[in-house]
Write a structure and sequence with these properties.
There is one protein chain. The termini are far apart. The model has no long low-confidence stretch (mean pLDDT 96). A hairpin with a 2-residue loop joins strand 1 and strand 2. The chain has a seven-stranded mixed beta sheet with strand order 4-10-9-8-7-5-6, sandwiched between helices. A four-stranded mixed beta sheet has the order 1-2-3-12, with helices on one face. The chain has 395 residues and is of the alpha/beta class. The structure holds 4'-deoxy-4'-aminopyridoxal-5'-phosphate (PMP).
Length: 395
């Protein structure tokens, strides 16, 4: 490399200070708020009561005492699993949860991971290598992007939900050993559904496999809450679901055929080399799964709330993105505008997250409103009024 092309060495402290300044000046600086207590939609933040409109606890199970009770019973054996699942961390609670999930989804086998991030990384890095190709929707979750990059496979990023582009990308990668098409099922920042039946047909036509990340659909969509595949009447080769959203606990699973699961047990590094989730968390997730099954009225309430929010927004002239799921984005464009509106709403007692780059593409900053079965109709109406007033004040 020529001398003049070399990057000058900088001390770490100077680098961090400069980068943080740059992030702050672009209105992209992120901070955390501390939750002191409360449960469901009504929580206390920094000692103040507020309504949570940005949680993924879609069914209100995260604070359900029955999940806490299931966890408490399992805690009698201790807190930590003590090891990875392949060493000595695989507890009866994990096995019961895997079996319950497989039975619920109607799939031969399920493998637990400690997070959805770990599941996506484990599958993609474990399954694909340099001779393979990954065809991915451009708006896929960050964990799918990172997993794909880490795999070393050829990575083709296609325009959002563009079935023809997926088709062309598969055509282009006909020489690859293994071809995997991967898509979020519900897009986490937009709330729209992937065209899964069409993607399954395209994959089948090319002899490729289809993986979906149903983090936001599991427990929410489908008559039985089995997720986006149930709602759309299809079955992917690989289905990832998370347990920290509708199921009210934490962790994630991969569902598929026996050989897929056995292979992941051998090769998914985030499974092999990571401590198994605490058994109490698995117990809570299994109770959450039972309630997803037994209390369909939670889903009915959630969809009533989605309808109320969308109808109310239309009546007030608030233009929403076309989403029929609990994720309801309000596109604002400018990061500073999204931040200021979010801050203003917070001061009025509504917690609505401002989503900015790099989470979403530049110029598409937004408020991401998520609805839950626990929101009361009056709370949704109050948020709508505050949103309309905020939009008027921040044109
Ligand atoms: N996939 C999607 C689509 C997600 O939205 C998320 C989390 N926000 C994940 C995967 C990661 O799941 P986890 O939070 O369990 O790591």
């Amino acid at each position: 490399m020529a001398d003049d092309a070399r990057v000058a060495s900088v001390p770490l402290a100077a680098h961090l200070a400069a980068e943080l300044r740059r992030i702050r000046e672009a209105d992209l600086y992120r901070t955390r708020r501390v939750i002191d207590g409360g449960h469901g939609a009504q929580i206390q933040v920094n000692g103040r009561s507020c309504l949570n409109f940005c949680s993924n606890d879609y069914l209100g199970l995260a604070a359900d005492p029955r999940l806490a009770e299931a966890a408490r019973a399992a805690l009698a054996q201790g807190t930590g699993s003590g090891a990875s699942a392949l060493i000595s961390g695989y507890n009866r609670e994990h096995q019961r949860l895997e079996e319950a999930l497989a039975d619920f989804i109607g799939t031969p086998r399920v493998l637990l991971f400690s997070t959805g991030w770990a599941a996506n990384l484990g599958v993609l890095r474990g399954l694909l290598g340099r001779d393979d190709a990954l065809v991915a929707d451009e708006l896929n979750h960050a964990s799918l992007i990172d997993g794909g990059r880490l795999s070393g496979a050829r990575y083709l990023r296609v325009p959002h939900a563009d079935v023809t582009a997926f088709d062309a990308a598969l055509q282009e990668t006909a020489a690859a050993r293994l071809r995997l098409l991967v898509s979020d099922a519900i897009f986490s920042m937009d709330g729209d559904l992937a065209p899964l039946p069409e993607l399954a047909a395209v994959a089948a036509r090319h002899g490729a496999a289809l993986m979906i990340d149903d983090a936001h659909g599991f427990g929410v969509l489908g008559a039985g809450g089995r997720g986006t595949p149930e709602a759309l009447g299809m079955r992917p080769d690989i289905q990832v679901g998370t347990l920290g959203k509708a199921a009210g606990a934490a962790g994630a699973f991969v569902a598929g055929d026996t050989d897929l699961i056995e292979y992941l047990v051998q090769r998914a590094r985030s499974f092999v080399f990571s401590t198994a989730q605490p058994p109490a968390v698995a117990a809570a997730a299994r109770r959450g799964l039972e309630l997803i099954r037994e209390e369909p009225e939670r889903r009915a309430r959630l969809f009533d709330n989605i309808r109320r929010f969308r109808d109310g927004a239309a009546a007030l002239g608030i233009a929403l993105v076309d989403s029929q799921t609990p994720i309801q984005p309000l596109l604002l464009g400018d990061a500073a505008r999204a931040l200021s509106l979010s801050q203003q709403l917070f001061e009025q007692g509504f917690w609505v997250a401002a989503i900015r780059p790099p989470t979403v593409p530049r110029g598409t900053s937004r408020l991401r409103i998520t609805l839950s079965a626990t929101h009361q109709p009056g709370q949704i109406d109050a948020l709508l009024d505050a949103l309309a007033a905020g939009m008027r004040a921040n044109p």
